[in-house]
Amino acid sequence: MPVLVMKFGGTSVATLDRIKRAAKRVGVEVAKGYDVIVIVSAMSGETNKLVGFVGETSPLYDAREYDAVVSSGENVTAGLMALTLQEMDVPARSWQGWQVPVKTTSAHSSARIEEIPTDNITAKFGEGMKVAVVAGFQGVSPEGRITTLGRGGSDTTAVAFAAAFEAERCDIYTDVDGVYTTDPRVTDKARKLDKIAFEEMLELASLGAKVLQTRSVELAMRYKVRLRVLSSFEEQSDEAGTLVCAEEEIMESNVVAGVAFSRDEAKMTLISVADRPGIAAAIFGPLSEAGVNVDMIVQNISEEGRTDMTFSCPVDQVARAEKAMEEAKAAGDINFHDLVADQNVAKVSIVGIGMRSHAGVAAKMFETLRDEGVNIKVITTSEIKVSVLIDRKYMELAVQSLHDAFGLDQAA
Ligand code: ADP
Ligand code: ASP
Ligand code: MG
Fold it and tell me: Tell me, what's the pLDDT at 236?
């Protein structure tokens, strides 16, 4: 039998009624002759609640226990989904990550999947089971401890299962009916894309579009998984939603495919550090060891052997970054006059593979922001994206005006 993977996100399993509606969708695919692997998230809001419990109990928590707690939301929905299917006379059972087992690294709270043995579930399909319901987001480390894959990780569970079982398709059911040119919550001009290239989706996801976890897109690209994003709230045809696919499958596309944003960024500047060989290593080594995810980096021009070094990181990592820098200073590894943190910035990015062959895209972005009176604090570019750091209060304005300027409400 061909295998289909169907993943239901938090809002799609938020109540018993919604689980029933999702189960009906699964029933439709079973009736078409598929063996279905259903990946479920926790009910919406549940993971946030569990993360809150952990933080309140233990601010500097043991990450292994964090995973034990926050993975549990998915156990509930997996069991309920299997029960709902059984009530519909669809032969189904649930699996928690460790039962499959979804083997991961030991990087608790952001583990990576290393292997998914297929024998166990395949044997059950052979015995007449029609649906394997698997708790998303979780796995088991080589030490036998429960791990989680980072927020939004059920997407990655789904794609990894699709790759392991060579599924015909991996359908991601969520609360929007596909991937849009930008988050439809920010502008009602956002337009649903029928297709988007893996490379573009990868950039959009890593630059803040949370509709798919970045790692899931990486895996889909590597293992050539047909990945589709669609709504669990509407009746769906086989062509519904957005197909994430190889660039070659897309005939026409805009130069800029989408606008992404990341709201909670901080900009930190080390004032007057010695400009000598090894200074970047002396700064960014300790930051990395402290678990600070440094994103953009700018080293200013130096004067009399001293320079300013600016970097950005998530705003909730500012305290950790400051501590790491003060410790490096105390140890004599670096020297700086001051460390200035601007905690009110956001990152806005434009993404599109068309940028490879079109000049002037970055200039147009800067002109658009100038016309809106938005000051740019830091810029980074790559082959298919341009990102700017701006004041957070202008983020929506910047997204909307860039969306207009690049004509994203119109198809190519
Ligand atoms: P789920 O719980 O189903 O995993 P998420 O909340 O993780 O759902 O992701 C879906 C959300 O992603 C949408 O509600 C939307 O607000 C947001 N989003 C951000 N950027 C985009 C985009 N470019 N296209 C579609 N949705 C987007
Ligand atoms: N429940 C987890 C989260 O909220 C995983 C997921 O939904 O993908 O991050
Ligand atoms: Mg998600």
Answer: 67
pTM of the model: 0.94
Residue 233 is predicted with a pLDDT of: 83
Instruction: Please state, in angstroms and as integers, the Cα–Cα distance from residue 307 to each residue in 50, 270, 282, 314, following that order.
Output: 44, 9, 14, 23
* Strand pairing class (195-197; 146-148): unpaired
CA angle 331–335–337, rounded 5-degree value: 130
| Ligand with minimal distance to 75 CA | 2
Residue 154 Cβ contacting ligand 2 at under 6 Å: yes
Distance 255 CA to ligand 3 centre (A): 27
Q: Which parts of the chain register pLDDT below 50?
A: none
- pLDDT, position 168: 97
Q: What is the pLDDT of residue 252?
A: 81
Query: Ligand 2 pocket: which of 38, 51, 147, 151 to mutate (most atoms <8 Å of CB)?
Result: 151
Q: Is the peptide bond before 101 cis (omega within 30 degrees of 0)?
A: yes
Q: What is the pLDDT of residue 308?
A: 96
SS (H, E, C) 215-283: HHHHHHHHHCCCEEEEECCCCCCCCCCEEEECHHHCCCCCCCCEEEEEEEEEEEEEEEEECCCCHHHHH
Strands 35-40 and 3-8: parallel
